[in-house]
Every structure is written in C-alpha cells, then in structure tokens.
From TrEMBL:
Signal peptide: none annotated. GO terms for cellular component: cytosol. Residues 663-894 form the FAD-binding FR-type domain. This is assimilatory sulfite reductase (NADPH).
Amino acid sequence: MAIEVSGSSTPLSASGTLTSPSPIPKAIFDLKQFAQKPLLAASDLVELISSRSTTSSAVFVYDLAEQVGFGPLTKSWSNDGETASIISLQTRAGTGLTLVGRLSQGTSKETENGSILTAYTTSTGLASMIPSLLYLPSPTPTSRLILQVPAVTPVGERFALSPTLAPLNPTISLLPDDFTVLLSATPQESVDLAAVAYKLPTHVIHLFDHHSATREVGKLEVPALPDKARVGAGVQEVLKEAGYSYFDYAGDEQAKTVLVVLNGALALTVKAIARHTPGLGVVVVRVLHPWDETAFKAALPSTVKIVHILDEVTTTGVQGILQVNVFSTLLDPSSPGPAIYTQPISPLCVHEYLTKPSSFFQFLSSLLPAPLEPLSLDPKKSSKLLFFSTPGTALSSVPTIIGQTFSTSSSLSSRLLTEHDILSKAGGITADRVLLAPKDSTDEFIPLPVVLPISHVSEGVSNFLAILDQSLLKSHSVLTHAKPGSPVLVVTSWSPAELVANLHADVISLIKERGLRLCAINAKDIATKLLGAEGPSHHIIQALASEIAVLRIAEGVYGGIVQEMDLAKVNAHVWVGLVEIDVSVTTPQADEPQELALKDFEFNAIAVSTEDGETIVNGARLGSWHDAAKHLLFPNAYTPPNDSAADNGEYPQIPNLRPEIPDRTYLVTCSVNRRLTPTDYDRNVFHLELDTSGTGLKYEIGEALGVHGWNDEGEVLDFCAWYGVDPSRLITIPVPGGDGKMHTRTVFQALQQQIDLFGKPPKSFYSDLAEYAKAKTDKFALQFIGSSEGVSTFKKLSEKDTVTFADVLKRYASARPGIEVLCEMVGDIKPRHYSIASAQSVVGDRVDLLIVTVDWVTPSGSPRYGQCTRYLVNLKVGQKVTVSIKPSVMKLPPDNMQPLIMAGLGTGAAPFRAFLQHRAMLAQQNIPVGPIYYYFGSRHQSQEYLYGEEIEAFIQDAVVTKAGLAFSRDGPKKVYIQHKMLEDAEVLARMLRVENGVFYLCGPTWPVPDVYEALVNALVKHHGVDAAVAGDFLEGLKEEERYVLEVY
C-alpha cells in the first residue's frame, strides 16, 4: 500500500507567518513526516528505500556516488535506529571485492543468516567494479547484491556532467545471467524500480538518470517499502506487478523506421517526438541484461523496415552492448529482416543533445526519410522560470521557496531542478529551473534540461529570469536565456544608474534586441528598513522580499494564485523598492575600454542533500587524510583568491593564517608577559608586550587589539575523549565569515582554535540539540529550555550556572550529534578586543596590553575562566598570537593644546597610558601640549596602582598636571574617582565649557552615572546653569567627540 503524500504543508501560510528554517538537519528520521513533504526528489526516495534495515542488511557508499550527491542523506540517517549499517568505501583497483567477500560462503557471519547488500556507485565506478563482481556467489533469496547507480559522468574539457551510460560498455557484457540490469528515466519510474530491485531473485544493477530526473524536486508517490524476506518468482512477473515491462514501444503502430534507445533522458525525448511523427516508432530498453530476444521482437511493429540503434559508446568505432544485443536478435540468415544501422552517440554528443535540443532534432531528422516537422516539446500551458544565484547566500533559497509555494496550488504543479557551476567563478554559481504546468496535464514527462536548456547558444526560452546576485551580470552571460519580451528581475544593491553602468555592452544590446523588461529590487535595503541590524531574520526578509518580487513581476505568467498571502507590510516595501530599468537610451561610448567576454554557465557540480531536504554545495563533514593531501597537491584549486586591499603593500596577508576573516590579521610574537599585581592578590592583572616587527601592523592611539584566542588544550582533549571522537581525524567545516567557503582541519584544531565549545550557548542551541536526543527525558528537557515557557530555566543555566556548550552536552548525554554537525551548531570563537596600552610613535614595533584574568566559581563549585584571558595569561615568551586591529572611540583631539580629562578604573587605564606616552614624546620635542588631569581608581594602592611608577614619572615631568588617585579600600571611608573629580570641580568645568577640553572614561559601566552627576554638579555650581542645561551640554559634547565613554 502506497504512502499518501500530502500537499498541506506550505512554506508560507495564509497568515503570512514566517519561521526561520533551522540550518541543522534533524537527527531522528521520521518516515511518515518525510513522505508527507509536498515536494520530494526521487534520489532521496531511492536512498530511503535502499537504506532501511527492512530492505538491506548493509549499505556500502562509494566515494564516487557521494561526489555526485548520492549517499550523504543515507549517512545522515545512520543513527536513527531504522537504517541499515553504513560502510564508506573508496573506488580503487579491485573495487567490488569487499562485496564479494561479504556475500561469499564462510567469509562472513552475516552470510549464515542471509545478507542483502546495497551499494551506491556511479557508472564509472560500476565499470571498474564489474570484473570483481564476476566472482560473486549465485544469488539466493537471502543473499543478493543490489547496486543503485546514479547515471551522471563528467565529460569534456569543462567537466560538464552528462547522463551518458557509455562508461559501462567495455565491461557490462561480462556480467553473468544472474544479474539484472534495470534502466529508469522518470522520477517516479526511478523510485518504483528502486523498490522492484529488492523483490527480484537476482543480483540487480539499477541505473537511473541522476543528471536531471532523480534530482528534480516535485510531487511523487512513495511506494510501500520492500521486505528483504519476500522475493518474487521472476523478473518479468515482478516488473509486470509494478506496471512495467522489459521494453516500451511508442510512436506509430505502423512505423517503418524504428529507433532503439536505452531508457534515459534521450529516450524520453525520442518518445515524445515519435508520438507526433507519422512513420516513426521507438523501442525503449528498460531491462538491458539479461537480454530477452522474444520480448524485444514482440515490441517491434510488424511493418518495420529500418532499425536505428542509438548506441551510447565512449568513442565512435566502438561496439556497444545494445548493438550486439539488437544484431544478435534481428539478424537471421534464414529469413530477411529489417535493415539495421548503428548510430554511435559519444558522451559529448549526449551532453550536446540535452543542452541544445535543436541539434538532437537535426540528428534524428538525418535518420528519417523525411525531415522532422518543427515540434514543441513544452507541456501545454506551461511556464518556465529560471534563477541564477550564488550558493550559500541569503537568496539562494528563493527558487526552492517559489517551487514550494506553487506546490500548494490546487491548479498548478511545479518541477524544480538545481545545478551548479563551481569552475567558472570562485564560490560557484547556481542555476534553478522551475517549470509550472496545470496539475491535470496529460503531457509526457520531458527532462527539464530539454524543456529549459541552458547553453552558450541559447535562443532564450525562459518566461521569467531572476538574477539573485548582481555580480553575475559582470561575469556571466545569463540574460541570453530570457525569452524575447519576458521580464528579468535583478536583486541588487546598485542604484538604477549603477546597474546600467555595470551591464556589459553585449547585455545591453541583447536587452534591446529581445525587448526584455529589466526590473530591479534592493532586498537587503528592504530587510534593513523592516528589521534594522543584520541577522538570521534579516536573511529571511531578504529572501521573502525577493520571492514576492518574483511572484508579482511574473504574475502574468501564471495568474494570481498567491493572492491569499497576507504579507502586506513586506509587500508594500517591495512595491516601493521595485523599479523598472530603461536601457533604451544607453549607448556604448567609443572611448570605453574593451570589456572581457562574459562566461557561460556549465553544469559541473551536484549539491549534497541534507536530511531536511535542503541542498547545499558545501557543508561540514568528517573526512580522511586524503582531504589534506588534495590541498597540498593542488594548492591553486583549494586556495581562494585573496581580495584584501591590504595585500598590495610590503607586508601581504599570510594566506594560511587562521582564522580567515574579512579583517586583516597579523601573526605577532609574545615578548613580555608580566604580572603586575602580587601573586598572593586575588586579582591577576598582567602586562603583555607583543612584538610586531616584520608584520606590517600599524595602529593609532586609542585603537583596540582583537585577539583570536584558543581554547585550553587539555579541556579540548578531555572533551574529545568523552565524546568519543578522534582528535586527529580531519573535518571540513565553514570558514568563519567566509560566505560559504570551507576549509579542512583536524578535529583538535577545529575545537581548539575555531569552535566556541566552552562559550555560552544561546536559547536556540537547546532546541536544535533536542532533535538529537535519544532519551525522551533529555529531549523533553531540551525542548522545554528552548521554548518560551523555559525562559526562567534558561536564565538560571546561563546567568547563574554559567553553563557552556560542553556542559550542556554532558548534562544531556543522549543528545550527541556528529562532531561535524556539532561544529556548525556551536559556531565560532569571536575575537576579544583589548584597548592598546601603548603609542606606536613611542614604542615602535610593539603593542602593549593591560589585562585582568576573568575567573569565577559556579554555585556547584566548578571553576570558570574567561576564554581569551586564560589563553593570554598562559602565553609564553616567543609564542605566536593572531591579532587584528579594531578602531575605537578613544581618540586624541586634533589640537595638542586641548585639555584632557582622563578617568580610568582598573584596566581602564590602558588607553590613557598610550595618551600619556604620546603627549610625553611631544613635550620632549618641545611641542606645546595642553594640561592633563588623570583620575585612576582601584582597591589598593600597594597592589593595584597599575603602571604607578610610570604615572609618578609623568607627574614629575609635568606631563600629568594633576592626578586624582582613588584607592577605595585603603582608607576608613571608600573613595571613588567621582569624589576626586568633585575636588577639582571648578577646573574641570572650565576645561570643558571654556577651554574646549575633552573628557574620557574607560572601565566598567557602574561609575558612569556618578561621574556624569559629578560633572553636571560642577557645571551647575561654577557656571551658574541648571542641571538640565548642564546635562544638555554634556550630551552635546558627545556629538563633538569631547565626552567619550568606553565602558564594558
């Protein structure tokens, strides 16, 4: 009994409620929920059928299959309790012998109880595996091998992907008769035959079109899962029960010319042509081996005079298995038969015929007595939408959302196909085809690459074209795919004038020639107006704004079927932001420099499927040492271009310096690490000096130094041991802020240097982790903490218990995602910024820091340490540190004569040391400088008078005009800096109100109100203004950058 597939779930509900989709795949697989998705990819269902423990004893996933996106989904289900055991293998010499050994008598414990093995590989992998498969034992109802083979192969100099079966021809004829080779073409047929494979009494090879058909996302019927204990009587009977046969015939029943073709993308195209061409028929081969001569003869019409064999071979002149089978069946010396001709089709020809259907029409016309009449293969009343974007960006999900939106329509069906080009542009390009057609359409299934081809000779067939990344306009010829007179939407941050200026001359000519309607929208600006700061919700609104623009612009294509969406607020912003661009008056200038030729899109990469149905080009994963070897052997391929403007100087950015963030980073050396407070004092304040010579690091007075600290080595190793992960194992994870870029590191490196494992988890982490909990108590507890009802529990854990990510994992031990998933869930260590305590004009190639260690004890008695201060306090002389520079509000005024009032508490003295060093240097050069009033506060003078000797020297040299030192615990009464400021109230008021002085406060936030009140009182008392006027005056100083606070 088939599982009902419901279309009730919609990405955007009628009320317009938006929920941010979690980027973390779910750990516990739910078959019913999976089957009820309104849109599914056939390849996902093939993996589902093949990987169930009721279907297979074990699943062997070969690397070549994973590289084309077939297998990762199965591996993501490995811990759900319903999936067969998963074994990852690599394709090499002798590939297949592992399978032979597992099925051979006496070599495996599983053989005694029966073993139904499944293997995933590609056509190329299968070709190298077949010689080993000759040694397989004969199949039995309890011991069989099923190979699920996605047919997709790179061809040509540009590594374009093709569904050709040519790689199999040299070896497939070697297979014994106890193998059945099934070929499927449509998405539904691929799913059905995947299930049929487990009901056959033979070994089975199932080849399906993974170039397009099985990767299409559309509506499918999920068949009942096969039971490995139940096997059919024979191949023909099982196929008939499923509604299929060895061969299909289509076309004229009285045809004189018949084409014989292997089931696949070309076969579907030929069938559609034959149904509309008198005198032409086609026999489609569904079961290639063993060959059934009787069934083949029965499929041919009695009127046939000429048979053309469309034989997929590696090169012309090579004899394919289809040619051998057809000739052996029809050539009979005792009786005359039809004339037989072989038409070899190379892999490049298959690729050309699918990307340029007109060339396939010409090829078929050459085989017929009369040329083919012009024929459209488009489904009736269909519309074709085409999207170009960049993988992993905020807008890359828009085509999927569009497809899902149309899937909820009662009158329309949608088909979505995603392709990637990772060679013509750094980071890759994504092309998404969406085909809309009436749900009651009876048209035959035609591959989307044929209906909506993308090639360098495209004549433009898309009814609507959207460009979701403005940079593609400057690099690729994407508008060539737009149908004359059709709308084109560009999502861009450029103004209309900037957009036109960035269009290639050829693109402008094309727009004019085809009469394209060019529209633009700034989705990022709309999201900012609605939400303000960037974040996950910001990306959602960008995608939503783009989607609404698509729906509205292309509304004439399919009618207003989404009018029920209540998204008025976003809708209004979209309409205001949507502009039509007029290029009719644009003419190229004669003196313009020669533009580079635009590149063409070439399908050469398939994304990896995740458990929640999303497809991405890159994703975190565990790997072997081979990943690192590839980076070393092919550095140019794995090193992204460095666009940093800072690299043009004498000191270029170190390319392999971690982390790879947009800011310029430097590798400096610890030269001094000295504790300033006594060792028996409870606060460890220490002074660091970092040598910057040879790095090119420059900083201004008052700027901050970003330190990229590491987690404690011992804690990381302890966690790895507890979590059961090998710290030396390689892992590929996203680069911090790398916009989809990935890098490969060891697990230890990732956890020590990048992943914030010992940081504070946000509320969403508990919800995401709940999906991986196997114990119900853990699952419910995590769900509760992550919900709105659990806010008080979350607050206690976060603020009182100060739990870390690692603590949460240990507390709920049954929730244990894979380490590669955990890394993405936790996120990256953020740099900690410290005010620089030195002036480079004085100290030269050096940067000084003043830091206090952060440590505390939780209510349970566990010690806690600040991540970065712990890293810095343990630095050894000579040890390297990665740093970056961050601008600060703490700047010296432009006039050296302006008075300075500096108030610092504890380590807040750091930037003032730099100020004093610089003013002292000016004084030594006999440059006049203004007065400085320095206020410093700490608990004890004998223990925390930070840089006390230097301050006293500055006082003696008159660099510091007056010092107000407040040591709160030294006297009978507590004295703070605001008390010292009140003693100088008249001078401070004059400095600020009359002498254009500047006030600075650096340190903790708590004294801010008291200091503010002290200054207000000084102005009221000595300048005769009321408190409100004094307060307004201080607020005005903030605008002039003369009342500067840097508090934390």
